[in-house]
Amino acid sequence: MKQILLLTFLFLSTITIAQDDLLNDLEEEVEIEKFELPAFKATKIINGQSTKLAKKKDFHLIIAHRFGSIKDGISTFFGLDNANTYLGLLYGITDKLNVSIGRESYRKTVTGAVKYKFVEQSEKMPLHIVGYVAMYANTQLSDQTFPDLTNVDRLSYLYQLMFSRRFNENLSLELSPKFIRQNLKYSDYDVYNYMILGIGGRYKVSKRVAITAEYDYNFSRPSENPYQNPLSVGVDLETGGHVFQLLFSNGQSTLEPSYLTYASGDWSDGEIYFGFNIVRVF
Fold it and tell me: What range(s) does the DUF5777 domain occupy (predicted)?
């Protein structure tokens, strides 16, 4: 009888220890999943870069459209007749290093960029920290408009840091200081150097749908400059290998030097541009 009771006690103790180990493992898995999930699903929040990078050897094809102002009404079919198109390619050299090239029809601008992840959010680190450097060439400029134009004048540059955090399963926010250098002043209202601070976020409302928003404040724009600070709102739709982003913005360009310094729309007057981004991952 004593032997039976001893065996029963050992058996129950083993089950209890196994349950404890299993619960510990499950807690660890939940904790890892909590921090390994990326703050953003696409490499852009809307127009601005996010802290998301392509994985090593992943290849992204990016197609973006920004239509004309919806204020133009039926005469342009609410802007659909005046589309600006961006085509881009992005490649993940490593999980921390991406390179990209692209071209936008607005000002016929060609761009190349490098994105690098310095730090990833984890149990010990509260933030993602990512850097982004890009160069842009405006190939539309003509020496008939600017008689002293040189090839260097066509260039502009962006230097950007991004700090993001995924606060919970649904909410991610990003803060991003930026410096833009324009080698050419397009008007007397312009300056060569711009300091800008951007804030953006993503709120997941279902498994495949998220609401996004972003705003950038330009500290360097002269008071007489007629352009606006860009404000955009959008919806992310995840469909397998695609991320489909629908958006409304007061800037028609998809590239930073243009939409951050030359956003011509005014939300209060209904000067808003509808557009979308499609990302296909290979």
Answer: 40-282
